[in-house]
Specification:
Distance between the termini: 29 Å
Order of helices and strands: EEHEHEHEH
Radius of gyration: 12 Å
Strand order of the largest sheet: 1-2-3-4-5
CATH architecture: 2-Layer Sandwich
Shape: globular
CATH topology: Transcription Regulator spoIIAA
Strand content: 25-35%
CATH superfamily: STAS domain
CATH class: Alpha Beta
Structural class: alpha/beta
Number of strands: 5
Number of domains: 1
Helix content: 40-55%
Length: about 110
């Protein structure tokens, strides 16, 4: 898993994830960095998922915990551009309501009310 942290601007925090979000590729330091950047900002977030290859339960748990932390701060997180396989993993987990999905950045901003 690779994490690229984006700027916090206009009430939205950004990050991009790449690679495999599974036990073999996720390091605790990367998880902590992602969660601290997104949830720590306590504002709406957009997470670019276009380069994520595989999403398993560990990756879903990281995303869900981050989304729940944002919800406590009255903020939301939108996942942008997941592949069909990653989207299927999200849908099968039943968590799409907690983590809305958008096809692109403009759609994500619209979902966040911007």
């Amino acid at each position: 898993m690779q994490v690229q942290l984006g700027a916090k601007q206009e009430g939205v925090t950004r990050a991009a994830l790449a690679g495999r979000l599974d036990r073999s590729a996720m390091q605790e330091a990367d998880i902590t960095k992602f969660e601290a950047h997104i949830a720590g900002a306590k504002q709406n977030a957009i997470v670019d998922m276009t380069q994520v290859e595989i999403l398993t339960s560990l990756g879903i748990r990281m995303l869900l915990e981050t989304a729940k932390a944002l919800k406590l701060a009255s903020a939301s997180m939108v996942l942008v551009g997941p592949s069909a396989q990653v989207l299927e993993s999200l849908q099968m987990s039943g968590l799409v309501d907690d983590m809305p999905v958008a096809k692109d950045d403009a759609a994500a901003i619209a979902l966040l009310g911007g």
